[in-house]
Amino acid sequence: MKNAINRRIDFILIIPVFFLLVIGFVAIYIAVVNDYPDRVMQMMLQQGAWVTLGLFIAFVVMLFDTAFLWKATPILYLLGLGIMTLPLFFYSPALVESTGAKNWITIGNVTLFQPSEFMKIAYILALAEVTIWFRIRFEKLSLANDIKLLGFYSLVSLPVLILLGLQKDLGTALVFVAILSGVSFMSGIHWKIVVTIVTLLILFFSVFMLVFLWEPGREFLYHMGMDTYQINRISAWLNPFDFASSIAYQQTQGMLSIGSGGVLGKGFSILELSVPVRESDMIFTVIAEDFGFVGGAITLALYLVLIYRMVLITLESNNQFYTFISAGFIMMILFHIFENIGAAIGILPLTGIPLPFISQGGSSLISNLIGVGLVLSISYQNRIHQEEARMQRYGRAIQ
């Protein structure tokens, strides 16, 4: 039994995840030693516990088959929605004041977890199930049917986006939009719909930026419901060094930190610049300052290997349900990487999105490892089907 499981585990997928976790441990240790020297043991033990729990859940998820995931998806989706309502009632006023969002469950003085991180996995499963159900029910590919499919996607997405709106967590909402985009593309949505949506998004973004760049326009956006912290983040992104001592302090310090690392970095645990919360949202600044361009390039290369391997696993699968699950997770990881590093180097506004497998924090880390478990499950089932095919072909099991 043990040998059979070992044969079916995709170690090529596990290797980049392992090294990313190691980089995370090293970077978090460096950040904590420099910023919170009295909490080193506590924070490292916490990270170790989260990694251990995440790996255990990933191993269990790897053993799930299609039938179980199909039955569990509606339950996980509804449970996820229920848990996402909790931060609206159980939150830390101090955390809300600093971040502007009610996205963490806090009871007393203890901050527990961020429900939206786990909802990402349930949402991916729900979109995949809806897509398969719809394509079976409406076999004919047509523009009208694709519009209907988008309607069903909306039914799944709107409750999540409404709750994120109530939590005022725009950054996480963008992750869900990225997941939806990936699954929609894989579902074969008609190109006319894709072009129309992309055109509308570009038009909306252009109009928004024109209004925002006009000084009375920012006041108009504020009165229309846009929060001050969101206006500040966009202002900090557009003109970071004009606000280097105030609202853009984190972003400018992060950019300077990355640039100061040069090609090879300053050396292990040498952080000369102050960067707020660099153990989590700005963890890439630690990698770049200590290990330079080479360290950052190695990190990106590991992500590239991981994404490439997940794509290969997806292409090897004949199970469409798994294909949509994998597409959603790949888009989720890609968006996290692009937004986190993009914000750190100043090409995107800060949104508080963590760097997968590296940033300090349990909710995101465990959620990402669960996603890896789902992709491992795809590979695991692929190999079971290959073994069954060989048994049928040769009339005996291949030892």
Show the helix and strand layout:
Elements: H1 2-8, H2 11-35, H3 40-62, H4 66-84, H5 93-99, E1 106-107, E2 110-111, H6 115-137, H7 143-167, H8 170-186, H9 191-213, H10 215-223, H11 228-238, H12 249-260, H13 283-316, H14 320-344, H15 362-394
Antiparallel strand pairs: 1-2
Helix content: over 70%
Radius of gyration from the alpha-carbon trace, in angstroms: 22 Å
How many helices? The count is: 15
Instruction: Give the rounded overall mean pLDDT.
Output: 89
Q: Tell me the β content.
A: under 5%
List the strand order in the largest sheet.
1-2
Catalogue the unreliable spans.
none
> What is the general shape?
globular
Number of strands: 2
Give the biggest sheet: 2 strands, antiparallel
Total domain units: 1
Q: Which secondary-structure class do the elements indicate? A: mainly alpha
H and E string: HHHHHEEHHHHHHHHHH
Distance between the termini: 12 Å
